[in-house]
Automatic annotation (TrEMBL):
GN (gene name): tsaD
Enzyme category, top tier: transferase
Catalytic activity as recorded in UniProt: L-threonylcarbamoyladenylate + adenosine(37) in tRNA = N(6)-L-threonylcarbamoyladenosine(37) in tRNA + AMP + H(+)
Alphabetical UniProt keywords: Acyltransferase, Cytoplasm, Iron, Metal-binding, Transferase, tRNA processing
Protein name: tRNA N6-adenosine threonylcarbamoyltransferase
Binding site for substrate: 141-145, 174, 187, 191, 282
Cofactor binding note from Swiss-Prot or TrEMBL: Binds 1 Fe(2+) ion per subunit.
Length: 344
């Protein structure tokens, strides 16, 4: 039986501004190394050209560290899994090229991974006290670039039931933070200040969107006009009300997400609900999701913090699941900036 012998997969993630490598053995993570790129902070967002250069500098030491921490030799590896897309093209190319070279040098299979599937399937990493969702389940995938409600029928059968028509929820958090003069990335700062504020202090209009889709651009504009008006009346408005403003913004965004989730459960009858992606690290989203277990009888699945933001552990688990199915990639496989969650 294949499961009895150790299968070591190296995962490589380079879709945006974090260079990451991880080693997994039969579903258990042995190492997960992430090198963050501080350089983007002063630009208020990710600069693609700088991101790909930083990946080139980071990729060798990060992979070396991951293999060392896993306490194995690179000759023990059974396959190399890498992020094929979606993401920034320059960044993806660094990881893709390196993965191809390494798989050729070690003469082991190459496994291309969809970054968005990685976020969802991070729930299948074997961890103590971590429950794995049964099929079918619903996953709310929320990040800087994506906001989607996905129905997961099996590991590689995913259907988007609803998604954002414009901006992603992570962008709404970051842009709102920018309006308030907070440094990039501002999403975690809104979460931090929101915990000290009154979520009902200010009311923002929620966009009306049909079906299970989302829209955040109108909300963002509404927040901008509200702040401009208030600052005109009182130049210290932001400083005097920062906690309440952040709490009100966060409350509105979380309400938008959960109204759609409730609608999804009503339509599908599926009550196993997971969250994934960088924004799922938000404390209010986690708290409200946990509360739905008692309130609506849902069963919820929340990943560990380190598996929410971009990391290679999630790429490695997808690589392992594909390895079990002999689902390997050709050396001719190319990186792609756009890739739907349903595409393998």
């Amino acid at each position: 039986m294949i499961k009895n012998k150790p299968i070591y997969i190296l995962g490589i993630e380079s879709s945006c501004d974090d260079t990451s490598a991880a080693v997994i053995c039969n579903g258990k993570i042995l190492s997960n190394v992430v090198a963050n790129q501080e350089i983007h902070t002063k630009y208020g967002g990710v600069v693609p050209e700088l991101a790909s250069r930083a990946h080139q500098q980071n990729i060798v030491p990060v992979i070396q560290q991951a293999i060392q921490q896993a306490n194995i030799d690179k000759k023990d590896l059974n396959a190399i899994a890498f992020t094929r897309g979606p993401g920034l093209m320059g960044s993806l190319l660094v990881g893709t090229s390196f993965a191809k070279s390494l798989s050729l040098a070690l003469d082991i299979p190459l496994i291309a991974v969809n970054h968005m599937q990685g976020h969802v399937l991070a729930h299948f990493i074997e961890e103590e006290n971590q429950q794995i969702p049964p099929f079918p389940f619903i996953c709310l995938t929320i990040s800087g670039g994506h906001t989607q409600i996905v129905k997961i029928t099996n590991h590689f059968n995913m259907e988007v039931l609803g998604e954002t028509l414009d901006d992603a929820v992570g962008e709404a958090f970051d842009k709102s933070a920018k309006i308030l003069g907070l440094p990039y990335p501002g999403g975690p700062l809104i979460d931090k200040y929101a915990q000290l504020g009154n979520p009902k202090a200010f009311k923002f209009t929620k966009p009306r969107v049909n079906d299970l889709n989302f829209s955040f651009s109108g909300l963002k504009t509404g927040i901008l006009y509200f702040i401009q008006k208030k600052v005109k009346e009182n130049s210290n408005f932001i400083q005097e009300n920062l906690n309440d403003i952040c709490a009100s913004i966060q409350h509105t965004i979380v309400e938008i997400l959960f109204e759609k989730l409730k609608k999804t459960v009503q339509q599908t009858g599926i009550k196993h609900i997971a969250i994934a992606g960088g924004v799922s690290a938000n404390s209010e989203i986690r708290k409200v999701l946990k509360g739905t277990e008692e309130k609506f009888g849902w069963k919820t699945y929340i990943p560990k913090f380190e598996y929410t933001t971009d990391n290679a552990a999630m790429i490695a688990i997808v690589g392992y699941l594909k390895y079990l199915e002999n689902n390997f990639s050709e050396e001719s496989t190319s990186a792609t900036a756009r890739l739907k969650v349903s595409e393998n």
